[in-house]
Amino acid sequence: MKAIRRFSVRPVLPDPLRPLSDLARNLRWSWHTETRELFRAVDPDGWRAAAGDPVRLLGAVPPGRLRELAQDRGFLRRLAVVAGDLQDYLTEPRWYQRAEGEPPAAVAYFSPEFGITAALPQYSGGLGILAGDHLKAASDLGVPLIGVGLLYRHGYFRQSLSRDGWQQEHYPVLDPNEMPLELLREPGGAPARVDLRLPGGRTLRAHVWQAAVGRVPLLLLDSDVEENAPRERDVTDRLYGGGSEHRLLQEMLLGIGGVRAVRAYCRITGHPEPEVFHTNEGHAGFLGLERIRELSERGVPFDTALEAVRAGTVFTTHTPVPAGIDRFDRDLVARHLGDDGELPGVDVEEVLRLGTETYPGGAPGLFNMAVMGLRLAQRANGVSTLHGAVSREMFAGLWPGFDAVEVPITSVTNGVHAPTWTADEVRALRDDPTDAELWDLRRTLREQLVHEVRRRLYDSWRQRGASRAELGWIDGVLDPEVLTVGFARRVPSYKRLTLMLRDRERFMGLLLHPSRPVQFVVAGKAHPADDGGKRLIQELVRFADDPRVRHRIVFLPDYGMGMAQRLYTGCDVWLNNPLRPLEACGTSGMKAALNGCLNLSVLDGWWDEWYEPDFGWAIPTADGGTVGDGPLGDGLEDRERRDAIEAAALYELLEEHVAPCFYDRGPAGSGLPERWIEMVRQTLRRLGPKVLADRMVREYVERLYAPAARAHRALDVSTAGRLAEWKARVRAAWPHVAIDHVESACESVELGGSLALRVRVALGGLEPGDVEVQAVAGRVDESDSITGADAVRVPLKASDGPGEDGSWLYEGPLALDRTGPFGYTVRVLPAHPLLASPAELGLVALPPDDLGAREAAGVLMR
């Protein structure tokens, strides 16, 4: 019989064991070895049955065992030490508390998913794992972050395979009471609640659950509350599920409801109010609209509120393709944010303008969440150097008249949280291990992976319907002595799961080579609605089912954090072969590198930035190697040709470089692959420190959070109002700003000489202090375009007063500091001390000849 209601009965711990509850409820245990070992000692068998989840463990420990532990002096001493260590961790000053200047009092970090631990399954892939690592690193550094997300009652799906290899999805019911969560409660004990108005007089209500991620509180909004109608109750049912309106409601709850949850949390707990709001991807973009609404309730005009909100907002984009961005029908957004919906007092037309695709080729009927995110944030970034360049090109249309290199989107390369992703054996390694110690370490980790793979493969085949008698062959799957390649990630088409199968005979030759065999461990999930991705999985599974190769290649279903931690540590090589430049960052290879695993990857994402031959291998690509500079197009024929070229390059690397390096055991008698071991050593010593989430979060603090906090403090309502008025005046006058005349005098065009520039500018009623007149100079290409990376920008000075016609004369020297083809142009930009970038308004005035031919860039002298 099926129960009509489910609830959890929590254990009553003896008084001496009460600290166990606090340790279980703080997710620091997920990256703190000593805490996990303490829980393992509570009940080793129960720890395995609970899959390493302390909350589940404590709910299942027999009372007799608890009484026994309460009398165990040795255990109680360990408990006191671990509990004391947590208390010190939570209260002692850390890096942030010693930082110079006045960093933000608090930062609110919004993300649609968070991957903290498998015990809190609220993630689907890299975006969530990155968000989880961001919170953990912020905790370790003492950054006063508040995480904000949604609590999905079914999480993301669990994956299994049918007998013929087709992905099947299962959605487990998650009970927050059985997870390391606590309800946020008002002082009187009632659950804190967030309400959103919906069209038709409906209300979306949500409770707020708290997870303690070390020092960082994570707030998760949950619409599964009894007061909601069934439709609203299901808003947070599953991650990335449902249709367009369902997604819109999720994102309204995340952004608008998330700000209200932060306000409630700070009011109830006394936590400092955030000065900076970080929007991790466009899903949370509505948070800016809620903050505008808060100001509008105080009578602040929309434009003024927009300036005040933008100043303290950071927007991070993770997608390198327009198709990866959430876009909603404008009418749907208007209905939910208009007079009959949320954000009362905010003009819905102003809201719609924020998400309008005003660039060439944009769809006027759609509301673009990333476009809104960029317009609501004064600071924006991509997640690797290459992705920053891709993002600047992708969104350049929002800043017409500017070269892509000047688009105000910077980059902070992602990092990974070392304590989460580094094997205990690697952490225990001494500072300068011998070759033999490094090789023994790698073999130990590989052997652990082999046993883990066999166990998971057995369980998978049983789920696929195989009997025990059919599965004796699994005992021979993989070999601890064989070069092991890992490939695990989501399965959209651009990540090319099946590129390795392009030439099956050649690939089988690699797997079955008599002296240098290679074995593969593969995992990944396709989105439930992505039948193309599911077909790729089925193709790979069917190949791996072939009795000729099934001992050398394995597909493991249900890829998640628990599996990933084994794969990253146990593989010798981590493979990544996306279509360049479609991998924004790709942090899985970073986690592998922390464990001495070498990367074999297309030069995309972070690998494009930090690849060196000492760390692994770069797969040659057919795209020309630079953004937008490939000889191949996007058609099916070109894609097929590109895949063929890059698959052949992959096979050649494995055959001629990777495998020989692994199996070359050096001079007679040593038995060690000396070159391979040296690459492992260099990966751990030189690459490891670069890929850390600590480095990433420090960069966010220093380059984005701290400047955003300063801008937030500078833009009080009065100042924001003056800035909004100034922008409106500049925009109105800008059609009349023009460069009327340019002349130069040059004594010598030799290196070390200079040009004396004189530029006459009509300011259209603006004052010289409202603009900056620049000379832009540098080397020019064959089309006389100034190359962006090489350009210098020299401000020119205004004369004492306007001429008879009202125009102003600007003058200044331009140094000739380089040889070769050289050119310059001049331009006028808005200028104000509170602008974060000269391109912020997207306004620029160029010489008349440039207005109709932007590509010529106005080269006036060579």
From TrEMBL:
SUPFAM superfamilies assigned to the protein according to its UniProt record, in alphabetical order: UDP-Glycosyltransferase/glycogen phosphorylase
UniProt xrefs under Gene3D superfamilies: Glycogen Phosphorylase B
EC number(s) per entry: 2.4.1.1
Family matches, as Pfam families: DUF3417, Phosphorylase
NCBIfam families linked: more_P_ylases
Boundaries of every DUF3417 domain copy: 13-120
EC top class named in words: transferase
Alphabetic keyword roster: Allosteric enzyme, Carbohydrate metabolism, Glycosyltransferase, Pyridoxal phosphate, Transferase
Cofactor: pyridoxal 5'-phosphate
Catalytic reaction equation(s): [(1->4)-alpha-D-glucosyl](n) + phosphate = [(1->4)-alpha-D-glucosyl](n-1) + alpha-D-glucose 1-phosphate
Role: Phosphorylase is an important allosteric enzyme in carbohydrate metabolism. Enzymes from different sources differ in their regulatory mechanisms and in their natural substrates. However, all known phosphorylases share catalytic and structural properties.
Protein name according to UniProt: glycogen phosphorylase
Entry's family note: Belongs to the glycogen phosphorylase family.
